[in-house]
Amino acid sequence: MVADRTIVLNKGSELSLADVAAIAAQPNARVSLHGGAKAYMTSLREAAEKQLAADPNRRVYGLNTGFGSNFLGGSAFKTWRSSIGDVAEAGRWLVKQGIADPAKLAIFGWSFGGYAALQVNYLDPNLFKAVVAVAPVTDAADVWSDYMGSTTRSFTTEVIGTHANAVEGSPVRHADIFKAPVLMFHGDLDLNVDPAASKSMDAALKAAGKQTRLVVYPGLDHQLDDSAARADMLTQSDAFLRKALGIDGH
């Protein structure tokens, strides 16, 4: 039964699927994904995502904080099929339960969450009808190379897996598969995820004839910790989602 399953939101916090069903009264849904192993949700960032979900016609289900070594060992790039597969399954569950209209299901992610929002299109390009990715990792093979340059091969394999696995787990390598329009945001001073990641993804999607747009904010890092930039990101994301999902006459 639905009540027997739970979604882990963060350490020590769970939300039953029955609870999700109880609070989800509208057909439009956005799945918001947590960041990587060492990620944290600043109050400003959390408030920004809540503001995006403030529309009474939009429901958001999110995972927001990092999971440390457990995350690295169980659901990082090494086992991306499991972690990204879970994202796809969550979307299908929302549709199956009648919570989300399959024609109006979008995905939003930041950092590793942005990676997941993109990579899930490789597993199921028909599931999400719009993608918003903020400061996303787009080439796991680059991450693999970075690890190899600063650590041992054994540690790299432990965390990232094989190079072939990293290549397959890289959304930038699968731009031709995408069907949903993509909107990305990145700060040009991001030291966590190089802005080149979003630029490469944008270029690959354009080369494949896909709908894509990248917004780069000058002078900002991974958190986009600036009120004007946050307001702009939310405004553009809202307009993008409304148009892509055909909400409010768009």
Question: Can you offer a commentary on this structure?
Answer:
The structure is a single chain. By secondary structure, this protein is an alpha/beta fold. It has one domain: 3-Layer(aba) Sandwich (Rossmann fold), CATH 3.40.50. The protein contains 10 helices and 8 strands. Strands 4-3-5-6-7-8 form a 6-stranded parallel sheet, with helices on both faces. It has a two-stranded antiparallel sheet with strand order 1-2. Helix 9 links the parallel strand 7 and strand 8. Helix 2 packs parallel to helix 10 and helix 4 crosses helix 5. The longest helix has 19 residues. The chain is globular and about 55 Å long. The N terminus is likely disordered.
Provide a brief overview of the structure:
This protein is α/β, with parallel strands linked by helices.
CATH architecture annotation name: 3-Layer(aba) Sandwich
Number of individual domains: 1
Please state the average pLDDT score: 80
User: Residue share in helices?
Assistant: 40-55%
Outline the secondary-structure elements.
Elements: E1 6-10, E2 13-16, H1 17-23, E3 29-33, H2 43-52, E4 59-62, H3 68-74, H4 80-96, E5 105-110, H5 112-123, E6 130-134, H6 140-150, H7 153-159, H8 163-168, E7 182-187, H9 196-207, E8 212-217, H10 227-245
Parallel strand pairs: 3-4, 3-5, 5-6, 6-7, 7-8
Antiparallel strand pairs: 1-2
Helix pairs in contact: 2-10, 4-5
Which tags fit this structure?
250 residues; alpha/beta; Rossmann fold; six-stranded parallel β-sheet; two-stranded antiparallel sheet; 10 helices; 16% strand; disordered N terminus
